[in-house]
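Section 4.2 – Deliverable D4.2 (structural model, holo form)

The reporting period included a commitment to supply a predicted holo structure for the target in complex with zinc ion. Inputs used:
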Amino acid sequence: MKQKQLEFIQGLPKVELHLHIEGSLEPDLLFELAKRNQVSIPFSSPQEVQAAYQFNNLQSFLDIYYQGANVLIHEQDFYDLTWAYLLRCRQDNVVHTEIFFDPQTHTARGIGFDTVINGIDKALKQGKEELGISSQIIMCFLRHLDQDSAFETLKQALPFKDKIIAVGLDSSEEGHPPQKFTEVFQTAIEHGFLTVAHAGEEGPAQNIDNAISLLGVSRVDHGVRCVDDPKLVAELIAKRTPLTVCPLSNIKLNVFETMAEHNIVELLRQGLCVTINSDDPAYFGGYMTANFIAVAKALPITNKELMALSFNAIEASFICDTEKQKLREKVEQYGNKDAKL
Ligand code: ADE
Ligand code: ZN
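Output (structure tokens):
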């Protein structure tokens, strides 16, 4: 990759649609919060925490990720976590972000739903005011738990409905297909929430189909295994159903062995509405810019195609048309400036 393309990526206005806020907990902050909250962790330094971040699949990552979340207790902790992520967004020219949180990871430990959402929301509001970064919140149900627990979580979310744009589905895909959550998603839709779901990350293409037909999702998180079903690919193209792809995550969790084998550029060139996202950047080795760079280093991609990834993310975002248009203009202006250089 040329140095010029690296600089282009750095400055490119970006939109992130697949980010687990708990997955942005850096070893330094994890260590600091463990001390502050007197939570015992089996590490004596942030370096030791970092060294423990070795995974070979989704489940081995999730086991460590849920442990890490134990240090988050007070509203201030959720605020600090979110604010640290927003500062990284500023560095990477992320102009809009839609973030996931996993309420059950916290409520199961006796942390109030309000504690979690208020801490996140406070930081996001400040992010808009002080950094000019707009945002939305998506609440995910943990699919390894049962539907009753998801219903209970939905009930807890209702008083905070104005702060949550959509519900999602994450955690272990294997053995927990979308159809396990059909009713709770239908109820969420009746309450006015949009829906998304992780599907086709480790699981089969059928999960993508089912997420669309049974959970009514507006976009699919990951979805890279759609290639196993050409008819599904044709439908995704025809309907412009967005896929929130997470390149570095896919390599760390062995969804693809190497970035050179990743299918994101192939999917983009076929006409799918694919986007680049960081998933759990503290665990997978990089935020938005790092994900774009990793793709551009391993795969042939033009600056125009890099811009198309930003345009796709704007199209796929949960903001109004006026806001989308403003963001499109930002990317266009950036492209025009580059063309003149
Ligand atoms: N929770 C956090 N990151 C996840 C991922 N990549 N897949 C499923 N659940 C997750
Ligand atoms: Zn994810």
